């Protein structure tokens, strides 16, 4: 996608061929800043502190982090330490484990002196693969939007509600839930996006809105609790979100507040779609509510906000009374029964074990063995 007209990815190798560069997403939307990852510590910090976020991008960063670790210590012990440290950074997004497993499976049989080069090449390939998967999601999602628009009589404005950020900033490029929106906009559909602010980190207001601005997609930022009201008044034609982990039965785990949007959509007859690349499917989990670990993050994210002052300076401000505690569960689980369909790189399917197995028979069979 583009930043000020320049094609840009969220993660890439620097000109030296060794340093990994990322967009520091904690600085957006007011400051565009590139951070440099030179070792395992940098990669772990980038994931943990959410300089990068979004399940696919977390996986891509973990792959590059393992490659950086192999430059310093490519021994079996070094591989194990790097895997364990990266795996511990964030518990919910399954792409993290998937990417690390992919890297370890490649590297473990190799001699230590071959691991650094092989790891770098595989990390780059995983990033390129992520771009291909997400563009395919965009194509399949475009078909969904076009069909919905046609069935509504091709109105002058087709309103889509999103939650959190599932655009190119959450992946290497294109995005998951925003990929169909970009495709629809570029194809000439009169798409307009209601952008949930997505407290507490405001990924919608800060990141999704910034992305849509860069691409010229019409949108309006709304507070999180306005979504149900919009649906009641016929102002939402479809909802689409991403997911950090999808169970083999179609439950989806996404940013806190997604479940409430799905409930409102069901009550108002609004289609609720989830867009995901296949590495986000956890074939080992059947019951999302009972089995997916939900990350608890620090109270500071709830109590403090980063933004631009009237003076033009950026600063942190405190919004809660001193002494008031805050809880910060980062994700919730939306049961499959509330999901209209799953949009993947292989097509669209019902949110069910049968639906997923129909698109990914080889994965379902392997998981059952």
Automatic annotation (TrEMBL):
Active site positions: 244 (proton donor)
UniProt-annotated site: Transition state stabilizer, residues: 164
Enzyme Commission number(s): 5.3.1.23
Gene Ontology terms describing biological process: L-methionine salvage from methylthioadenosine
Function: Catalyzes the interconversion of methylthioribose-1-phosphate (MTR-1-P) into methylthioribulose-1-phosphate (MTRu-1-P). Also catalyzes the interconversion of 5-deoxyribose 1-phosphate and 5-deoxyribulose 1-phosphate. Part of a bifunctional DHAP-shunt salvage pathway for SAM by-products.
Family named by the database record: Belongs to the EIF-2B alpha/beta/delta subunits family. MtnA subfamily.
The protein's name in its UniProt record: Methylthioribose-1-phosphate isomerase
Lineage: Bacteria, Pseudomonadati, Pseudomonadota, Alphaproteobacteria, Rhodospirillales
Name of the coding gene: mtnA
């Amino acid at each position: 996608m583009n930043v000020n007209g320049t094609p840009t990815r969220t993660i890439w190798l620097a000109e030296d061929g060794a340093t990994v560069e990322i967009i520091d997403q904690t600085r957006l939307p007011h400051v565009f800043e590139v951070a440099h990852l030179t070792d395992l510590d940098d990669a772990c910090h980038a994931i943990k502190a959410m300089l990068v976020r979004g399940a696919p991008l977390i996986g891509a960063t973990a792959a590059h982090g393992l490659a950086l670790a192999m430059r310093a210590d490519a021994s079996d012990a070094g591989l194990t330490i790097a895997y364990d440290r990266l795996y511990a950074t964030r518990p919910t997004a399954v792409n993290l484990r998937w990417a690390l497993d992919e890297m370890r499976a490649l590297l473990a049989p190799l001699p230590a002196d071959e691991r650094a080069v092989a790891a770098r090449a595989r990390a780059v390939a995983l990033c390129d693969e992520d771009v291909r998967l997400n563009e395919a999601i965009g194509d399949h999602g475009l078909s969904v939007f076009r069909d919905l628009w046609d069935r509504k009589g091709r109105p002058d404005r087709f309103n889509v509600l999103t939650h959190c950020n599932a655009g190119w900033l959450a992946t290497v490029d294109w995005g998951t839930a925003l990929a169909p929106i970009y495709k629809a906009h570029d194809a000439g559909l009169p798409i307009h996006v209601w952008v949930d602010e997505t407290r507490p980190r405001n990924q919608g207001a800060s990141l999704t809105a910034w992305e849509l601005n860069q691409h010229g997609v019409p949108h309006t930022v709304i507070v999180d609790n306005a979504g149900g009201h919009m649906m009641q008044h016929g102002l939402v034609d479809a909802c689409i979100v991403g997911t950090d982990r999808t169970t083999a039965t179609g439950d989806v785990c996404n940013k806190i507040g997604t479940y409430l949007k799905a409930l409102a959509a069901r009550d108002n007859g609004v289609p609720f779609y989830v867009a995901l690349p296949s590495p986000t499917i956890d074939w080992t989990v059947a019951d999302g509510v009972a089995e997916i670990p939900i990350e608890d993050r620090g109270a500071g994210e709830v109590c403090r906000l980063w933004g631009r002052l009237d003076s033009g300076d950026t600063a942190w401000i405190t919004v809660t009374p001193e002494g008031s505690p805050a809880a910060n569960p980062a994700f919730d689980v939306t049961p499959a029964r509330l999901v209209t369909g799953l949009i993947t790189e292989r097509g669209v399917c019902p949110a069910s074990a049968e639906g997923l197995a129909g698109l990914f028979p080889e994965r379902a069979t392997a998981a059952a063995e």
